[in-house]
Amino acid sequence: xxxxxxxxxxxxxxxxxxxxxxxxxxxxxxxxxxxxxxxxxxxxxxxxxxxxxxxxxxxxxxxxxxxxxxxxxxxxxxxxxxxxxxxxxxxxxxxxxxxxxxxxxxxxxxxxxxxxxxxxxxxxxxxxxxxxxxxxxxxxxxxxxxxxxxxxxxxxxxxxxxxxxxxxxxxxxxxxxxxxxxxxxxxx
Length: 188
Description:
The chain is built from nine helices and eight strands. The chain has helices at about 1-10, 15-25, 80-85, 110-115, 120-145, 150-160, 160-165, 170-175, 180-185; strands at about 30, 35-40, 45-55, 55-60, 65-75, 80, 95, 100-105. It has a four-stranded antiparallel β-sheet. The protein has a four-stranded antiparallel β-sheet with strand order 2-7-4-5. β4 (about 55-60) and β5 form a beta hairpin. The N and C termini lie far apart (about 40 Å).
């Protein structure tokens, strides 16, 4: 399973076996069951999570009970409540397993130490952060510039496997529409 992390890292930085073993020593493995919370609103957040297997969602629940899904994370993706992790504030969102999930956990302290001791990892995380920021910017622009049909189509074209793994109610919560609206879009 750790080879998935190595392949992921080597998309940006080349590694020797010894370097990868050193990097891996900063991570811990953890398994979660379907519906289990990885992060819960109001709690402290101590880890960034790399998904080896499974699927998670980061979601915000309003006081009226409406759910907004901020992010999905499947194999080869990172997920956390980054504001809470970086600024040591309570989590503003829940991260919940949609499927049984296997992750590698990296504490903020270990991430900082790893980047200080092995410069290529700082480069790796800088590239990943930039890529994540660009993806978030594109998502925000799609909410401002595209109608619901276009956002649905873009999500489907970009992540077709997601539609096989999550219920339509979660796709609707990610797109910011009702389940009924999504049903009309997917039927059309």
